[in-house]
Amino acid sequence: MQERIRLGLTAVASPLEVGAGEAPQLLARLGAAFAALEGIDLCPSRAPVTTADKAAEVGCYFAGERVDAVCAIGASWFEDYLLLDLLEECPAPLIAWARPGMETGSLCGMQQLGFMLRALGHPHHLLFAAPEDDAALAEARSYALAAALRQRLRRARIGLLGHRVAGMTETTAHELALRQLFGSRVVHLDVPNFLTRAAQVVPEKLTPQSEHLCSAVGQVAAAPDALLESLQVAAALREVVHEEGLAAVAVGCYPHLMGKVCLAASLLAEEGVPVACEGDVNGALGMLILTRLCGAPVHNTDLLDPIPQDDQADVNQCDIVFSHCGSGGFSLVADPTQIKLAPVRLMNQGCCCLFPARPGQVTLLNLVPTLRGYRMGVLYGEAVETEMVFPGNPLRVRFNAQLQALLDWIAQQGLGHHWMAAYGDWRVALRHLCALTSCEYLTVDGL
User: Fold this and answer.
1) Beta bridge mates, 8
2) Contact indicator for 368, 416 with CB cutoff of 8 Å
3) How far apart are CA 234 and CA 216, in angstroms?
4) Edge-to-edge strands of the sheet including 340-342?
5) What's this model's pTM, rounded to 2 decimal places?
6) What is the pLDDT of residues 46-102, one digit of tens each?
7) Contact 415, 302 (CB under 8 A)
């Protein structure tokens, strides 16, 4: 499910100023405009903020409603302490909405407030537009969505089943930085205990699920006992997620658990719980971020290989294939009959979900630790149709960039090899999220 936003909404004015009398109407107009957008639960104040007492009252109301962000539209110039007193009671990120009007001083007041917010280190975003402006509303929604996601991440627990893969140092979780920047906590899970638990799931109870699964895909090449074992693992992992209150999981699958947890990842993705491969807690967090933004399963991939261009191709475009071994949610395929349940590559065991990824716009995210925190690399492209060029869930992405320039940027930024991909354009929300969490945001011009 896509993250819902609880947005506190008010208007602010100084009674002496031109335009102050329009504050109630502006509050109503902006409220109606936000109400027309999806995914927003509005918490409007009953009246505009015009005094310090009213500011504190509205701030307490917003705090009680546990809003993710506050949007305040300036009807006129106003004393900066009005919104500062409000934020003292409810320290949520602020959307400072200035409205046009030469004599109102609305923009002047919001600019004045910005000095104080910057000095105090309070997160805020300035907008200047009429209440019904579509572009401004979309920008406000993206900022509020990032603020809502930040709130959920601060309560998120990420399970680590086993350990990260030897030789994949960039997947190491920087637990202190995770806690400080995102608020997320790592829950360590013991592999032997988990496998014992999975083995205790009665196979006969899983037969109906197995039969339904086989009827829902195009081909089954996995052995029946391997399929049942994978469903036992899925059932056990689902129980652990519930008991521990996990928002995402990273599994140290390579090499011994390869093929044994892939189907569980596919099934749990459809239930809103992303599962990352190779013990990559950072990747699990990246998947969780994208899952909450788009409200659907996301891809967990390696950057593998470019597709050679033909002589007629645009030299300023390149196609790159991303994939892992076959742990994608079923909704990531265009046609379920393309899904093949088969043993995992390399180890030739277990049950993976093999299919080519469906086309569409995609945002790719790469989250890696630094010595002081985290940095996020973000790319945007167009997923195009592809054949099964890799035994997994190949995602062929077309970028508006020269291949070598793109690879040079990735190398220069020191990004890792795990890329998470969500359908849709989520660059604005990710940029806001990084600003709200002090995570370094990296992208390529034009992407």
Assistant:
1) 43, 70
2) yes
3) 17
4) 219-220, 340-342, 352-354
5) 0.96
6) 999 999 999 999 999 999 999 999 999 999 999 999 999 999 999 999 999 999 999
7) no
CA angle (338, 340, 344) in 5-degree steps? 140
DSSP 179-214: IIII--EEEEE-HHHHHHHHHTS-GGGGHHHHHHHH
Reduced to 3 states (helix: H, G, I; strand: E, B; else coil), residue 236 is helix
The length of the chain is 447
Q: Is the preceding peptide bond at 203 cis, omega within 30 degrees of 0? A: no
Lookup: tokens for 76: 């006129």
Which tokens belong to 46? 């009953």
Q: What is the pLDDT of residues 224-259, one digit of tens each?
A: 999 999 999 999 999 999 999 999 999 999 999 999
Q: For residues 263 and 353, is the Cβ–Cβ distance under 8 A?
A: yes
Residues whose CB falls within 8 Å of the CB of residue 392, separated by 6 or more in sequence, listed in order: 323, 324, 325, 326, 328, 345, 352, 354
Q: Kindly list the structural domains of the chain, giving each domain's residue range(s) and its CATH number in brackets, ordered by start.
A: 5-153 (3.40.50.10940), 157-443 (3.20.14)
DSSP 109-151: HHHHHHHHHHHHT--EEEEES-TT-HHHHHHHHHHHHHHHHHH
